[in-house]
C-alpha cells in the first residue's frame, strides 16, 4: 500500500479550544500538590503539620526549575528507549510560541507545563510515607535527585514515543506506573532505609485534623479531572470525556467499597476511610480509565477500595512504618489499576487492545501490563533505596530523636502550625474568656 501523502491543509493546526482546555487542566493538576499537602497535613500529629505541608510545597519550587533546565528535554526529547534528549529544549531555549507538540493541536509549551505538574506531584506523594522524621534539607536534595534519576527516566519509558514501555504497548493513560507505582515503590525503598518513627506501634499517632484531610481529599478529587481527562491532550474523539466519566465513577465506587470494608471489619464508616477510599479509586482509574467502560470503572474502583483498605494494615504485620499509607494506597492502587487494564480493556477507548474479559479473551495486554508494572516497581524501589542510603550516610536523613519527640515543625522550621499562647486568642484565650464569664455570672448572682 502506498504511503499516504499529508497535504498542508491536513497538517495539525493550533486549536484554541484544546490549548485553553489543556491550560485549565494544567492549573488543576498544579492544585493537586497543595491539595495533597492539606490531605497529608491533616493526617499527621499537630507537631508535624507544617513540615508535612512544606514537604509538598518544596517540590513546586525544585522540580519546576529542574524541568525547565533539563527535565523536559530528558523526559520527552527524541533519544533512545531509556532516556531522551533535545538540545533545543535545554532551558526551553529554542521553542517557538506556536510550535505544536508531536502531531497534536496544542503548543509544545502547553504540553511541557502540563507534564511539569505531573513531575511536581510525584515526589510530593512520597513524602507521606516519611512523616515526622526526615530532615527538610535532606528531603529537598532527595527530591532533586529522585526527580532526575528516577522520575524523568520512567516518564520517558512510559509516555515518550521511543520509550521502551510505550513501544511495548503498555497502557498507562495518566500515570499508574510513572506516578503512583513509581512514588509508592520509592516510598517503600526509603522507609526501609531510614527506619520507623519513635513510638511506632506503641504511641497513638492519630490524624490531628480530619476536616483538613477531607478538604485535601476533595481538592484532590477536583484536580484529578484535569490530571486524567487532560492526559488525552484534547477531546476531539471523546476519549477525554470517557476518562472524565470513569474518574468520577471509579472514585465513587472505591469510596463506597472502602467504607463497606471498614463497616464489616471494624464496625464503623470513618471519615479517614472515606478520604482514603476516594484517593484509592483515583489512583486505580488513572492508568485504566481511557481503556475501560463505566461498568469496568466501577469494578476497578471497588476492587481497589477493598484491596487498598486491606493493604494499609500490612505495615503493622511486616513492621515497616509507612506513616500515611503511601504504599498501601498508591503502590497497591497503582499496581491494581495497571493490571486490571489487562482484564477490563474494551478495545473501544484509547486503543484497540482488549483485556481477558473482552475481544478474543487473550492475555496479550495483561502480560504487557505486568512487564511495565514490575519493571517500574523494581527500578524505583532499588534506586530510591540507594539514594536514601547515600544521603543518610552523608547528610543524614533523619532528625534527632529529641527533635522528633518534641516536634519536627519547631526543630526544622522554627514555627508551629497553631498558636495557642496568645492572650485573648486561640484555645487558651477562649478558655480564659469563658472562665471569666462564668465567674462574673456567679458574682452577679
From TrEMBL:
Protein name: Ammonium transporter
Transmembrane segments: 20-40, 52-72, 104-126, 138-159, 179-198, 210-227, 239-261, 268-285, 291-314, 326-346, 366-391
Primary location group: membrane
Topological type in the membrane: Multi-pass membrane protein
PROSITE patterns, A to Z: AMMONIUM_TRANSP
SUPFAM superfamilies: Ammonium transporter
UniProt lineage: Bacteria, Bacillati, Actinomycetota, Actinomycetes, Kitasatosporales
Cellular localization per UniProt: Cell membrane; Membrane
NCBIfam families linked to this entry: amt
Domain of life: Bacteria
Family per similarity comment: Belongs to the ammonia transporter channel (TC 1.A.11.2) family.
Keyword terms of this UniProt record: Ammonia transport, Membrane, Transmembrane, Transmembrane helix, Transport
UniProt domain Ammonium transporter AmtB-like: residue ranges: 21-418
Amino acid at each position: 500500500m502506498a504511503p499516504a501523502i499529508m497535504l498542508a491543509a491536513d497538517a495539525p493546526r493550533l486549536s484554541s479550544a484544546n490549548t485553553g482546555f489543556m491550560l485549565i487542566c494544567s492549573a488543576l493538576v498544579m492544585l493537586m500538590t497543595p491539595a495533597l499537602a492539606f490531605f497529608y497535613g491533616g493526617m499527621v500529629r499537630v507537631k508535624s503539620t507544617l513540615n508535612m505541608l512544606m514537604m509538598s510545597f518544596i517540590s513546586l519550587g525544585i522540580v519546576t526549575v529542574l524541568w525547565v533546565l533539563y527535565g523536559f528535554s530528558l523526559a520527552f526529547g527524541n533519544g533512545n528507549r531509556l532516556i531522551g534528549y533535545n538540545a533545543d529544549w535545554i532551558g526551553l531555549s529554542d521553542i517557538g510560541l506556536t510550535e505544536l507538540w508531536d502531531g497534536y493541536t496544542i503548543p509544545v509549551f502547553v504540553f511541557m507545563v502540563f507534564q511539569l505538574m505531573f513531575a511536581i506531584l510525584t515526589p510530593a506523594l512520597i513524602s507521606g510515607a516519611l512523616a515526622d522524621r526526615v530532615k527538610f534539607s535532606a528531603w529537598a536534595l532527595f527530591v532533586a535527585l529522585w526527580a532526575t534519576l528516577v522520575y524523568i527516566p520512567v516518564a520517558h519509558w512510559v509516555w515518550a514515543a521511543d520509550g521502551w514501555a510505550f513501544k511495548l504497548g503498555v497502557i498507562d493513560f495518566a500515570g499508574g506506573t510513572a506516578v503512583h507505582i513509581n512514588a509508592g515503590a520509592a516510598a517503600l525503598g526509603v522507609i526501609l532505609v531510614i527506619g520507623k518513627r519513635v513510638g511506632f506501634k506503641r504511641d497513638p499517632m492519630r490524624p490531628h485534623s480530619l476536616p483538613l484531610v477531607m478538604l485535601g481529599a476533595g481538592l484532590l478529587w477536583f484536580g484529578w479531572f484535569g490530571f486524567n481527562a487532560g492526559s488525552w491532550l484534547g477531546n476531539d474523539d471523546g476519549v477525554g470525556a470517557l476518562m472524565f466519566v470513569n474518574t468520577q465513577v471509579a472514585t465513587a465506587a472505591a469510596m463506597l467499597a472502602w467504607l463497606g470494608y471498614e463497616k464489616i471489619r471494624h464496625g464503623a464508616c470513618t471519615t479517614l476511610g472515606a478520604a482514603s477510599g476516594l484517593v484509592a479509586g483515583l489512583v486505580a482509574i488513572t492508568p485504566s480509565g481511557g481503556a475501560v467502560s463505566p461498568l469496568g470503572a466501577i469494578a476497578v474502583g471497588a476492587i481497589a477500595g477493598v484491596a487498598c483498605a486491606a493493604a494499609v494494615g500490612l505495615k503493622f504485620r511486616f513492621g515497616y512504618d509507612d506513616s500515611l499509607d503511601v504504599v498501601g494506597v498508591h503502590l497497591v492502587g497503582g499496581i491494581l489499576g495497571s493490571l486490571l487494564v489487562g482484564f477490563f480493556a474494551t478495545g473501544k477507548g484509547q486503543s484497540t487492545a482488549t483485556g481477558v474479559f473482552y475481544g478474543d479473551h487473550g492475555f496479550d495486554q495483561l502480560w504487557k501490563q505486568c512487564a511495565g508494572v514490575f519493571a517500574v516497581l523494581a527500578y524505583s524501589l532499588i534506586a530510591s533505596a540507594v539514594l536514601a542510603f547515600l544521603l543518610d550516610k552523608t547528610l543524614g536523613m533523619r532528625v534527632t530523636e529529641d527533635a522528633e519527640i518534641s516536634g519536627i515543625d519547631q526543630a526544622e522550621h522554627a514555627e508551629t502550625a497553631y498558636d495557642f499562647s496568645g492572650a485573648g486568642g486561640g484555645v487558651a484565650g477562649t478558655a480564659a474568656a469563658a472562665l471569666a464569664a462564668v465567674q462574673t455570672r456567679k458574682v452577679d448572682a
